[in-house]
Design goal:
The chain has 1 helix and 9 strands.
């Protein structure tokens, strides 16, 4: 069992210490089901990326803005939960924020996310 409050505290502190203003932890992995805590400092952007087959975000702290390539835009704050659009989308922390991302992937293989700001990607 994991303590979401403790994970939120830990990863918000790590986000403030890190160069990119974010920290994430996949804490539940059961076949295609994944749950992650993602902490973002104010102004931090998760650049546009593809959506898994099914996912939702719940804002645990702070405020975020989700914008998708098909025109969906939503401002979410602590306590809000939303289905993530199936189109490409980006997420911006309006204020320091921690979200719970729940996703179902097409296969039980781990999802690999690359930081496009880095010079090269691992092979």
């Amino acid at each position: 069992m994991d303590d979401i409050t403790q994970l939120a505290d830990t990863h918000m502190a790590l986000a403030h210490e890190g160069d990119h203003g974010r920290s994430a932890h996949l804490f539940l992995h059961d076949g295609p089901l994944r749950q992650s805590v993602i902490a973002l400092t104010a102004g931090c952007v998760l650049e546009e990326h593809n959506a898994p087959p099914a996912s939702s975000i719940q804002v645990l702290r702070g405020r975020v803005r989700l914008v998708s390539s098909d025109g969906v835009a939503a401002d979410l704050e602590a306590g809000h939960v939303m289905r993530v659009p199936h189109s490409r989308h980006a997420l911006t922390a309006v204020h320091d924020a921690v979200i719970l991302l729940t996703s179902v992937t097409a296969t039980p293989e781990p999802l690999v996310v690359y930081d496009t700001r880095r010079e090269s990607h691992p092979a």
